[in-house]
Amino acid sequence: MSFSSLGLSDALMRAxxxxxxxxxxxxxxxxxxxxxxxxxxLAGAQTGTxxxxxxxxxxxxxxxxxAIGSKLTSxxxxxxxxxxxxxxxxxxxxxxxxxxxxxxxxxxLNSAVIFGGVGINPQIKQLKxxxxxxxxxxxxxxxxxxxxxxxxxxxxxxxxxxxxxxxDMGFIRDIRKVLAxxxxxxxxxxxxxxxxDEIKALADGLLNNPAMIEVARRNATSDxxxxxxxxxxxxxxxxxxxxxxxxxxxxxxxxFTRTKHGANKLVEQLEKDGIGAMAIHGNKSQSxxxxxxxxxxxxxxxxxxxxxxxxxxxxxxxxxHVVNYDLPNxxxxxxxxxxxxxxxxxxxxxxSLVCVDEHDMLKDIEKLIKQxxxxxxxxxxxxxxxxxxxxxxxxxxxPGHRNGGNRGGGAGGGGGARKPGSGNGGGNKPRxxxxxxxxxxxGNGGGNxxxxxxxxxxxxxxx
Length: 463
Fold this sequence. Notes:
Elements: H1 10-19, H2 26-36, E1 41-44, H3 51-65, E2 83-86, H4 90-103, E3 111-114, H5 121-129, E4 133-136, H6 138-147, E5 157-160, H7 163-168, H8 172-179, E6 187-192, H9 197-206, E7 211-214, E8 225-231, H10 237-247, E9 253-256, H11 260-272, E10 277-280, H12 286-297, E11 303-306, E12 321-324, H13 331-338, E13 348-354, H14 359-369, E14 402-403, E15 406-407
Parallel strand pairs: 1-6, 1-7, 2-4, 2-5, 3-4, 5-6, 8-13, 9-11, 9-12, 10-11, 12-13
Antiparallel strand pairs: 14-15
């Protein structure tokens, strides 16, 4: 099947052609006709499926070819917001809006993105002029709603992207406040990596007789990703990582740590070893995160150290190496992390540095992905067989504890057991619309954030 058979307008086909893609991915083959049909949609799509193009292309088609869109004479004329796309994080919002602009560049439609962590006044100015398509994070959108600087009364299409992550991050109340202000008659599109009970409940209350599509096996890891475990003592992880990077001449290495503090510390250590590294996490300013991502994508930065949530905006087709410096405390996040390599038909390598403290986490991951990962002991870094496990520090605030398989927040760490994650990812990314160069963002990482939404927002509504 080709894009030309999906019924998209000439303007959109021209934009798709510019990106170099000719064949839609499975989610695009199913989602585009469903959205063009005008009905509600419940779609299960994971990392690397090209889902963003699956909703941005038909959304752009509908808005640009209907009675209102066909009368637009330029991108600058005042207009009402007609489509709203909600995403869980800043980085994902920015990339979705980039995708809207990339595919809509030959139409007369315009778009804007609003999220926290940056000044609100430029956003107010842009909204006052008028946009067709608004991409937003829930918290910052509520800020605008409370200040009366955004008008949602003319919304025709609502998209909830990565709905499972928005629920995990505690945004359900914000979402319901937004829904209450939207016109009752509209098209609703809900995309989620998983269909948990909460997602089903949200869908039941939001969607009207929706079409349902689901692609990719859940909790599957791609066959083109070579996975291995390097057993190591906890205090030898940094020297081992430096050794692996230098001895293998690795470039463009994405490294995951469990905490923000751990990310900062590792960057300092790698810099002392002469390895260029930068960190991205929730405490970094938006400009610092954008700079680090840009340099990493352009291959100017050798190592990017990230926490799960912050890594959501990383979208690189041929990322060769992902390293789990710390194993994630939520098994599904392992699949998300390693799904960032082995895309677009390329092979990738996912390496995990595992100490005795993380053996139970490793068991949980292997149970989830239904395979035993090969162990490779690096000479000179043989782990001490008599070492005893210590409590895992889940957050920068203090140590966490394992009780009956549940990892609690621990002293000073925010308290309370974490809710098991529902986000799944991974899978080989076909070279189709939704790849690099303005294609669909596929950053489905995301740590399993605690329910207290305020933990994840700058100034109360940062995300």
